[in-house]
TrEMBL record:
This protein's name: Ferritin-like metal-binding protein YciE
Entry annotated with the keyword Coiled coil: yes
Keywords attached to this entry: Coiled coil
Coiled-coil portions: 34-68, 129-156
A UniProt-annotated Pfam family: DUF892
UniProt organism field: Rhizobium rosettiformans
Length: 169
């Protein structure tokens, strides 16, 4: 039974690494396109750094278990994230689509880290819990920021649109 729990935990960690890789592939194209929403760009830059650190923490946990991340999972989710970013870039309300999708994705990550923490606890992987909690905290902070700033971003989008200015990004 212990081996089953270890296997489940390792699979969850590999999935989390791929999920964070996907987050990078979502954030980077947004950063390249944002011009009119500097507060969003600043927070995305910060979260990109957090995400890269989260991937490193997961790699460290995997390494402590003599495991490695899954290049195939990383590639697959990264491709999916890139496609989503491309799809949003064609929308007139790109900044809103990105803001809403980012909020949803952050909540997905929160759920994934909560699940990983339960698996770590059940499997006796206490040494992994601090890093997972740190990742969870960063995701919760980002989700909170996105939620709190959705009103400002939406209002700015509408105001720019009414004034005939570029409202996309």
């Amino acid at each position: 039974m212990v081996e089953d729990r270890r296997s489940l935990f390792v699979t969850g960690l590999k999935n989390a690494h791929a999920m964070e890789n996907q987050a990078v592939s979502i954030i980077k194209p947004q950063l390249k396109r944002i011009e009119n929403y500097p507060q969003v760009a600043r927070r995305l830059e910060q979260h990109l750094q957090e995400t890269e650190n989260q991937m490193k923490r997961i790699e460290d946990i995997l390494g402590s278990l003599d495991e490695d991340h899954s290049a195939m999972k990383d590639w697959m989710l990264s491709a999916g994230g890139s496609m989503a970013a491309i799809g949003h870039s064609m929308a007139d309300d790109e900044i809103l689509k990105n803001s809403i999708a980012n909020f949803a994705f952050e909540n997905y990550e929160i759920a994934a880290y909560n699940s990983l923490l339960i698996m770590a606890e059940m499997g006796g992987f206490q040494s992994a819990m601090a890093a997972l909690r740190e990742n969870l905290s960063e995701e919760e902070n980002m989700a909170r920021w996105l939620s709190e700033n959705l009103r400002e971003v939406t209002a700015e989008f509408v105001t720019r649109r009414e004034a005939g200015e570029s409202a996309k990004v």
